[in-house]
Design brief:
By secondary structure, the protein is α/β, with parallel strands linked by helices. A hairpin with a 2-residue loop joins strand 2 and strand 3.
């Protein structure tokens, strides 16, 4: 009885706090946003050009078309050619990009432009991401651009140029970084994303001599939360970067968005060291990012979390159970959620040192255990997080004051100084680097994907290394890497390297060269889930159902007839990529080296109806991962 009474009081407290925090937003809006998100998908790609832009900004817009009428669904502004993200409802959409020379949101005569016209990749199911929708800006008034000169795009609410391209330089005092917008990102994430997106911003131009520190805010937070840190670090040694995102969104999707931003920044700037600092819920986003994608960023050596609810939050669980409208992040924040479990399924990369900061200046009562006025000590000090931490520091600060504490800042700077000395020692290493030369056997006027450099040590005890590089980065040197023998390859979506790999010896005082030709190929990849399984949240990475017992996967078309039997043991996917060998594992499947054409895909799984679908493959054109829902067989009880 006492437990039930406590639950009732706790629920009352939750809704009291909720009503206090919602002055400009209603639960009705949260509910409406949830409906829209279930029927939407994120479109991502890169705008490239060989033209001289002279700092000309770029507008990328998705629009629907009926007869001759075009309706802009969502658009983004970039300060230079680069990556973009758009959110659109399910359906077929065209995507256009043009150089907006005078920032008037008008496609003027003479401005360079490019387009994806009714591409199949844009016609996608709800949820997740449709990726690699790359656009190449060609000469002025290109005849293939189905977008009329003089078309005016309506300005956004803030009515000022705001780039969503990573690396955009911003000012901390910008109104879009205010507390008001931070709260909007939590309670009205859809409106936030449509208006200003999510991005990694710089406070100054990139300097290769300075170590980047990426700051990640928490729920309802903003870049302005980090003022004390921006002002208190040595700006001659470090450069602050800011990840600003709609914090009410699915945390898995925000982890995936961070991947997209960081892989583009790594390809462009090739930084050798990076530290990440996160407050509160932001620590969960970062740990998810590191657990899933950390091996792709060997430059990340340090993660400092501050007041993070490592064990989840009971108030979020109460909100999911009792609120008439649920903020997506609440589902992830529940103590027993799949998201919380997922961040401990695997360890963070061994090269990343985790420093765990927590605060204990809060209050204690029968409704709320010891806390920092927001997060309980039990959650901040969850044993699973402690086990992976290099050091743990406690402070007599609450959830907010800990970000302005001079004692916290002092310890923070001590950790940074140690990283700085190690980085400088690494920079003095002679050799232990690798030069990579490559060409695309593909027309220059067509968009090219971002390659990934892969190094596998001959010594099985060594660690595999992945590095995203720019499609224009041929002839550059990478490293340093530990001395030893390696198998080196270069992967790019819809392209195959020739040769598939090269044996390279890396050692001090030497810079060997690896040369590849990337040739367009056709491929098909996908994964299976049970029909009715949880919908993919907007921006989330796909998750196959590894419990489904697949018996065979067959692909037929033209002279191709291939059948896959799923692997029965743990296997290294890289082996199959290196040899371009078809395979199926844990609910996923990959077919490599396919001639262009139409294919029938057939999947037989125990206890499920046979699946059959038709797919088109075009060499050199990225094909999004196919999500296949299998229907359970109906058992005749008679």
């Amino acid at each position: 009885m006492a437990f039930k009474l406590r639950k009732m009081i706790f629920s009352f407290l939750f809704f009291f706090v909720l009503s206090f925090l919602l002055p400009g937003c209603t639960l009705m809006q949260v509910r409406e946003d949830a409906k829209i998100l279930k029927t939407s998908i994120a479109l991502v790609g890169t705008v490239s050009s060989t033209l001289s832009f002279d700092e000309m900004p770029v507008v990328v817009a998705a629009y629907s078309k009926k007869d001759s009428k075009r309706t802009i669904v969502h658009y983004a502004m970039l300060h230079e050619p680069g990556p973009y993200e758009l959110m659109v409802p399910v359906g077929v959409h065209n995507i256009v990009a043009f150089g907006d020379k005078n920032k008037n949101l008008l496609y003027d005569k003479g401005e360079p432009a490019g387009q994806i016209l009714s591409a199949e990749q844009v016609s996608a199911p709800a949820g997740g991401v449709a990726g690699n929708l790359n656009i190449h800006l060609s000469e002025h008034n290109h005849p293939k651009v189905d977008f009329p000169v003089g078309y005016q795009i309506q300005p956004k609410a803030h009515k000022k140029f705001h780039s969503t391209c990573p690396g955009a330089i911003a000012k901390v005092d910008d109104y879009l970084f205010s507390e008001e917008y931070g709260k909007k990102g939590f309670w009205a994430g859809l409106e936030f994303f449509k208006e200003i997106g999510g991005n990694v911003y710089f406070l100054e131009a990139y300097d290769p001599a300075k170590i980047p520190i990426l700051f990640v805010h928490g729920a309802a937070g903003s870049p302005q939360n980090w003022r004390t840190f921006f002002e208190g670090i040595d700006r001659d040694r470090y450069q602050p970067w800011i990840y600003y995102y709609p914090s009410g969104s699915s945390l898995d999707s925000m982890s995936h968005l961070l991947l997209w931003k960081m892989q583009n920044l790594q390809a462009k700037y090739k930084f050798n060291q990076l530290c990440i600092t996160a407050h509160s819920m932001g620590g969960l986003v970062v740990r998810s990012f590191l657990v899933k994608y950390g091996p792709l960023f060997p430059s990340i050596a340090c993660f400092i979390s501050i007041s993070t609810p490592w064990g989840g939050e009971e108030l979020a669980e109460t909100g999911v159970k009792y609120s008439p409208a649920v903020v997506p992040a609440w589902r992830n924040m529940q103590p027993g959620s799949e998201f919380i479990k997922s961040i401990y399924d695997k360890k963070m990369p061994p090269a990343v040192d985790h420093y765990l900061f927590f605060g204990h200046k809060g209050n204690r009562n029968i409704l709320r255990p010891n806390n920092d006025k927001v997060v309980t000590l039990a959650s901040q000090l969850d044993p699973r997080a402690q086990r992976g931490a290099k050091m743990i520091y406690g402070y007599n600060e609450d959830h907010v004051s800990i970000l302005s504490s001079q004692q916290v800042l002092s310890q923070f700077n001590t950790i940074l100084a140690d990283r700085y000395q190690k980085a400088k020692a690494t920079d003095k290493i002679s050799g232990n680097r690798l030069r990579v030369d490559f060409t695309f056997d593909f027309p220059k006027e067509l968009p090219r994907p971002m390659p990934a450099l892969y190094l596998r040590p001959a010594d099985e005890k060594g660690t595999e290394t992945w590095l995203y590089i720019s499609p224009d980065d041929t002839g550059r040197e990478y490293g340093p890497f530990p001395s030893g023998d390696y198998e080196v390859s270069l992967f790019a979506p819809a392209f195959a390297p020739e040769p598939f790999s090269r044996s390279i010896r890396i050692e001090a005082g030497a810079v060997p060269r690896a040369t590849f030709v990337l040739k367009p190929v056709g491929f098909l990849r996908g994964y299976v889930v049970k029909h009715g399984q949880r919908d993919i949240q907007l921006g989330e990475s796909p998750q196959p159902d590894s419990e489904i017992e697949i018996q065979s996967i067959t692909l037929s078309g033209g002279e191709v007839h291939r059948t896959l039997i799923p692997l029965q043991k743990e296997d290294n996917d890289s082996e199959h990529y290196l040899s371009a060998t078809d395979f199926s594992s844990k609910g996923t499947f990959f077919f490599f080296g396919l001639p262009g054409g139409t294919y029938e895909l057939t999947i037989i799984a125990k206890g499920y109806e046979t699946y059959s679908g038709i797919y088109t493959v075009i060499p050199g054109q990225y094909q999004n991962t196919i999500r296949i829902e299998l229907e359970e067989k109906i058992v005749d009880s008679s």
